[in-house]
Amino acid sequence: MLSLTFNSTRPTSSFLHTPFLSSPLPLNSHHKTIKLHRKPISAALIPANPKPPGKLYQPFRPPPSQSPIPPQFRDLDTTARLDVLTNRLGMWYEYAPLIPPLFQEGFDPSTLEEITGIAGAEQNRLVVGAQVRESLVQSGLDAETLHFYENDGAGLLYEIRLLTVSQRAAAARYMAENKFDVGDANELARAIKDFPRRRGDRGWDSFDYTLPADCLAFMYYRQALENRDAEMKTSALEKALSVAVSEPAKTWITKELEGNDVDAEGGNGSVVDGVKVPVVRLNLGEIAEATVVAVLPVCGAGNRGKEVEEAPWEYGSKGDFGIVEGDKDWKRWVVLPAWEPVVKVKKGGVVVAFSDARALPWRVNRWYKEEPILVVVDRRHQEVVSDDGFYLVLSEDELKVERGSALKEKALKESLESVSQWKDKGRKESLGSVVIVVRPPKEDTENEFAEEDWE
Questions:
Q1: Which of 1, 123, 162, 375 is the most exposed place for a label (fewest CB within 10 A)?
Q2: What does the buried/exposed string (b/e) look like for 177-216 if buried means 16 or more CB atoms within 10 Å of the residue's CB?
Q3: pLDDT for 215-245, tens place per residue?
Q4: Mean pLDDT across the stretch 291-306?
Q5: CA–CA separation, 259 vs 173, rounded Å?
Q6: Residues 436, 438, 442: CA angle, nearest 5 degrees
Q7: Who's near 173: CB < 8 A, 6+ residues apart?
Q8: Arithmetic mean of pLDDT, 300-326
Q9: How large is the angle between the packed helices 165-177 and 120-138, nearest 10 degrees?
Q10: If you average pLDDT over residues 188-209, what whole number do you get?
Q11: Distance, CA of 356 to CA of 444 (rounded, Å)
């Protein structure tokens, strides 16, 4: 297994050379920001005319404001509006709507930062946060909840910008009740957005999508299933239980904590018999957003497992560019997020690609059988030791995943005297232990915004 860390590079020169320009274009320094707080504001800093369109470089601008400008600011001229922003006169959501009109007059974020001292990223948070707050006001959110966002609420509301209007209201109440900070708000928003994508995952139907707390609890529950360390898994389950609100969610998590098997869901069923290996769905863009990834060789499920044995055992990055090299040539590789079960496979890891999930030893929902899966295997652990573990085996000339207890029973039927004798002989009945099963990403069609939900 190879872990790669991506670090953004910094410009080494203070000038940008481009074939489109006859002379170097100076870059703004990241370390020397000049902030001007002059009163009265000099008219020389105000652009006389808007910048002409069609230039090579168009700086990022916050979205047009859809928040109404408060009455006390509507009749102010440009200089007075800049003074309001410079001195933060009023509540943040009152002066935030003043920013977009200034861009229409020809200002850009860097110029506005020099004049008012409000950084470009903060300008964006203020504008978007004010839009989110206005949508909450229009939806009828109670005044007590809105009061929580009076001071420094822009960052909190910015985090829930991608939620629908109804989701925003529920999330805003939950954040206010639990005194969330920006980090907590970001985690909650991700949990709510991710929940519909996990349809069909173990326990999904036991959590209530309309409750932000249940969405957060389900995220902690999934993290627990992905953790192979017993102590950390228990800690994550306890965290999920402390957050869950609905009774079905609490019951499901409690059964998992107590080690009880969970009942299947009707005829088709979902995962049963207390599966101990994490099954996760890869999110769209998850690898692109990851700062650390794992690179593993990929094998097909055919050819009687020959590729599994021949795949590279050791591989690593070399040189300034981190070029991946294995101990032998190999055609196919896959990049996965650095999930904990994957990171623990230091060497000997291999990924087996199955066309569907019928190779798994548990009953699965119909859509599992309609999509391919990747099974990450640790070839260092080939001896079948754990009854609850899962192992990759060659059965009837096909690669399959079998439970440890089933393999031991099969060994006994083959006239071995005892399980201990079977183990003492060091007989390897598997090609490796399964550490995680990965489902492919898919478009989020279950939670697309309605037209009226867009801001």
A1: 162
A2: eeebeeebbbebbbbbbbbebbebbbbbebbbbebbbbbb
A3: 999 999 988 887 777 888 889 999 999 999 9
A4: 80
A5: 34
A6: 160
A7: 141, 145
A8: 77
A9: 100
A10: 88
A11: 21
Does residue 46 contact residue 78 with C-beta atoms inside 8 Å? yes
- Is the pTM for the entire model greater than 0.70? no
Residue 225: what residue type? L
Q: Which of 286-295, 308-317, 397-406, 421-430 has the lowest mean pLDDT?
A: 421-430
Alpha carbons 147 and 12: distance in angstroms, whole number? 47
Q: Which tokens belong to 51? A: 């910048």
Q: Are strands 349-354 and 292-300 parallel, antiparallel or unpaired?
A: parallel
Range in 21-35, 94-108, 168-182, 186-200 the model is least confident about: 21-35
Six-digit token pair at 201? 């995952």
d(CA 353, CA 39): 67
Q: How far is CA 85 from the centre of its chain?
A: 34
* Residues in Cβ contact with 184 at an 8 Å cutoff, skipping those fewer than 6 apart: 175, 178
- Neighbour count for residue 254 (Cβ, 10 Å): 13
DSSP assigned state of 29 = P
In terms of C-beta density within 10 A (0-12 exposed, 13-18 middle, 19 or more buried), how is residue 331 classed?
exposed
Q: Which residue has the tokens 């309001």?
A: 84
Confidence of residue 292 (pLDDT cuts 50, 70, 90): confident
Instruction: State the number of CA atoms in the 13 A half-sphere of 345 facing the CB.
Output: 30
Annotate 245-302 with DSSP letters as a single string: -SHHHHHHHHHHHHTPPPPP-TTT--S-S---S-EEEPPTTHHHH-SEEEEEEEEES-
In sequence order, the 6+-apart residues with CB closer than 8 A to the CB of 87 are none
Answer whether 372's CB lies under 8 Å from 352's CB: no
Q: Which amino acid is at 83?
A: D
For residue 393, is pLDDT > 90? no
Average confidence score pLDDT of the chain: 76
Give the pLDDT band (50/70/90) at residue 279. Answer: confident
Q: Helix, strand, or coil here: 89? A: coil
Contact by Cβ (8 Å): 395, 402: yes
Q: Looking at residues 325-329, what average pLDDT do you find? A: 77
